[in-house]
């Protein structure tokens, strides 16, 4: 079944957001509960004064909001903005809108009140989203065909928006690629999971081709990518720029699941982390020593967890019933 057919059939009844951007604070950690005795009160997009400033922007049942990065029991901020994937950095709030039967999907940039300020129309199913530390660069990945990196025959499209110039790279497949030291281009090229360096020009991402999944380093100005090593997916650059957190297919086979790991970019040596469950997410860094990620339960609900980045310790629950985390500062 084609993407267009799935959009028309599966999501024809999807309700579009009416445009309201009122923000609320939930009085319970349960993602679907609102007490009639404790009606929600309005709050701002950025957590108000007095709320733990180490907060995460998250999605709760597909609704944009925020949660504490340190206290799973603290109040949850909720909005009426719906996203399939969201990310924020330096006050740039990016949202991949849910697929609609009539208009497809799009990347939306939002202001502090949740109003759309810029958009890029897209075709496909939203999957990955990242904003550079400066807030200038935004990258997204959508599935054009298929719905999981564990399957064969999937097709992705990954693009980049420069919010300063409004320049758009519609697909990284437009770039010249060097694979294992040789110029190479193939019809089965698929990119996903971009993460930016501090200069807003270089980036890391995953390239899938020829049955292998490579970590690539890219140069936006030169419009080039080159492979560094294999079996690296959805990289996320550490705040100090020296390491990436990523998911690694168990025994090189995504059907067996993924192991969350951290790689030293100077040596390409990896350390498996204390999370042994299969993590199919592009993780984030809470700080230079801690990685956070969404993990799906058997019932399909996601929770946000964290784990030390050095391979020690055990996973810790950060936000119940949430996914797509990013730090609000």
Provide an overview of this structure.
The chain is mainly β. 2% of the residues lie in helices and 48% in strands. It has one helix and 28 strands. It has a six-stranded antiparallel sheet with strand order 2-1-5-4-3-28, with no helix packed on it. It has a six-stranded mixed sheet with strand order 15-14-19-18-17-16, with no helix packed on it. Strands 6-7-8-9 form a four-stranded antiparallel sheet, with no helix packed on it. A hairpin with a 2-residue loop joins strand 3 and strand 4. It is globular and about 55 Å long.
How is the secondary structure organized here?
Elements lengths: L2 H8 L13 E3 L14 E2 L12 E6 L2 E6 L7 E7 L2 E5 L2 E5 L8 E6 L5 E7 L2 E7 L5 E9 L9 E8 L5 E2 L6 E4 L2 E2 L6 E7 L5 E8 L2 E8 L4 E7 L2 E5 L5 E7 L8 E7 L4 E4 L11 E4 L2 E7 L5 E7 L7 E4 L3 E5 L2
Parallel strand pairs: 14-19
Antiparallel strand pairs: 1-2, 1-5, 3-4, 3-28, 4-5, 6-7, 7-8, 8-9, 10-11, 11-12, 12-13, 14-15, 16-17, 17-18, 18-19, 20-21, 21-22, 22-23, 24-25, 25-26, 26-27
Q: What's a concise summary of this model?
A:
Helices cover 2% and strands 48% of the residues.
Shape: globular
Helical amount among residues, as a percent range? Answer: under 10%
Q: Terminal Cα separation, in Å?
A: 41 Å
Outline the low-pLDDT stretches: 1-44
Output the number of helix runs: 1
Helix/strand structural class: mainly beta
Order of helices and strands: HEEEEEEEEEEEEEEEEEEEEEEEEEEEE
Largest sheet: 6 strands, antiparallel
How much of the sequence lies in strands comes to over 45%
């Amino acid at each position: 079944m084609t993407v267009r057919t799935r959009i028309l059939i599966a999501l024809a009844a999807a309700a579009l957001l009416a445009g309201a951007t009122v923000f609320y604070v939930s009085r319970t950690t349960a993602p679907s509960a609102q007490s009639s005795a404790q009606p929600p009160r309005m709050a701002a997009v950025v957590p108000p004064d007095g709320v733990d400033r180490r907060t995460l922007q998250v999605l709760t049942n597909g609704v944009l909001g925020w949660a504490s990065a340190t206290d799973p029991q603290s109040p949850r901020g909720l909005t009426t903005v719906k996203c399939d994937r969201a990310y924020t950095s330096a006050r740039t709030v990016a949202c991949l809108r849910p697929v609609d039967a009539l208009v497809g999907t799009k990347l939306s940039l939002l202001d502090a009140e949740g109003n759309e300020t810029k958009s890029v129309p897209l075709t496909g199913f939203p999957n990955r989203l990242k904003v550079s530390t400066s807030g200038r660069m935004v990258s997204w990945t959508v599935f054009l065909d298929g719905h999981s990196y564990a399957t064969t025959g999937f097709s992705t499209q990954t693009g980049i928006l420069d919010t300063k110039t409004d320049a758009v790279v519609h697909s990284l497949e437009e770039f010249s690629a060097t694979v294992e030291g040789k110029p190479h281009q193939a019809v089965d090229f698929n990119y996903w999971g971009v993460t930016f360096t501090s200069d807003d020009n270089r980036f890391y991402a995953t390239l899938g081709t020829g049955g292998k999944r490579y970590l690539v380093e890219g140069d936006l100005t030169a419009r080039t990518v080159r492979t560094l090593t294999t079996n690296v997916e959805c990289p996320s650059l550490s705040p100090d720029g020296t390491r990436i957190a990523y998911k690694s297919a168990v025994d090189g086979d995504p059907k067996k699941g993924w192991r969350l790991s951290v790689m030293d970019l100077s040596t390409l040596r990896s350390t498996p982390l204390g999370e042994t469950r299969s993590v199919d997410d592009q993780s984030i860094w809470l700080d230079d020593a801690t990685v956070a990620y969404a993990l799906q339960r058997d019932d399909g609900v996601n929770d946000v967890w964290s784990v030390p980045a050095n391979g020690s310790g055990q996973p810790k629950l950060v936000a119940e019933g949430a996914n797509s985390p990013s730090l609000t500062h």
